[in-house]
Amino acid sequence: MGDPGSSPGSTDEPRSPVLDADEADRALARLHAEHEAIETSLLALQDHAGRRLLEGAGLTGVTKSRWAVTEEVIGRLWTCFDACTATLARARHLRERRLRPGPGELAELTALLRGPAVLVPPYVPDRGQEGTDSPEPQEPDGAPPEDAGGASPAGERMTLRAAVERLNADYARALDVVVAAEAVWSALPARIDMLAAELRRTRSLARSVGVRPGEHPAGDRLERITGELTALRAEVVSDPLAYWTPTGGSSAPGGGRPDTTRYDREARALEDVRREIEAVLDVRQDAEQRLHRLRDVLSRADRTLTEARTARGEVLAKIAASEVPAVSGPPTALQEQLTAAAGYRRHGQWHRLSPLLDSLEQRAEEELERARESLTAVTAPLAVRAELRGRLDGCKARLTRHGVTADPLLTERYDAARRLLWSAPCDLRAAERAVLRYQQAAAEALTPGPRRPAE
Q1: pLDDT per residue as tens digits for the range 25-43
Q2: Does the entry feature the keyword Coiled coil, yes or no (predicted)?
Q3: Gap between the Cα atoms of 285 and 245, Å rounded
Q4: Which of 5, 334, 336, 367 has the fewest CB atoms within 10 Å, i.e. the most exposed one?
Q5: Residue 22 and residue 313: Cα distance in Å, rounded?
Q6: Do 428 and 381 meet the contact criterion of CB atoms below 8 Å apart?
């Protein structure tokens, strides 16, 4: 709006060049356009939803202190704007007196347009932001606002140009607070309410499967999330600026974003609990089928152990000089836990049934495998006897196919081996030696050439 000038009549500063009529008209037109733009902005700020919310809210913390300062700034904005309006009105009235103003009128116009003709309230830095002091408005060359008249208890005098810059700086400060508060209020409470609705559904689902505070960790976590969301919403509503993160390096009013750190943490915690409860719900839906499978597995394990115990008695009776491993008793502990699982299902204690079924399924499969291994170990001597019997009969059948049946030595050795294998208790070591001798004699009988003498 032109270079700063000194007050007419001052003796310690150089005078500004007196404007001619055309320069005065251009300066008035430029100031008039700026005046209308500022008025439009101030009216928009007055009607801003964020400002109305701040005026009617019960504020606390950072927002309370910053809004108190911002209200003072908004008051100064209107006072400064009114002072500029009055100065511009005087200048317009002076210019409209005659088509071609005289030297005295031009000097007076120059004093109004470029001299310290505006009395504005003193500038007060923003004390509401901890750790930051808003800088005073600066002229384009970095100097403080023009103030040829100096400060006084009523305010300070400055040029219209400096007053406009003061208005712009104060407006940006006020708008920054208003926009930030509205952005937080627009974003966080609605998201918290949606999360709270999801929390209520999750709690209802948790109660349906027996997950309650004090009885299950997930119930305790739901209780904590409920308290945290309630406190977070109350804090966001009363102190929105505490949840605002300014964007570094941005000078635009309202540059930043809502801080959703606490909200995001609780949302993740709720999602974890929801998945855990859904797993418990899945247990409720397939509990009967899983219990039936468990009963079947444990029943097969019990039958296998019973068969192993029976086989052990048979082995001890039929096989001599054999080490037969002992067979353990039925899986009593697993049966008791299976009974407890059925009780949990009857009483709807799904949160307790879920981990118990997981454990029982693994242990039941291990018990069935152990019973099978025990049966295999116990019946091993009988398997050896059956294998020796097969070898003996197979060798005799081979001799019969070749027509070698009347050999006394073969007959003697066959009868000796058969007596050992079909007697009780059977001496497996002696029977194995007898079968081997019979096989050797058979091999010699089937081989052309002289035979070895009988042992």
Answers
A1: 898 889 889 888 988 988 9
A2: yes
A3: 46
A4: 336
A5: 128
A6: yes
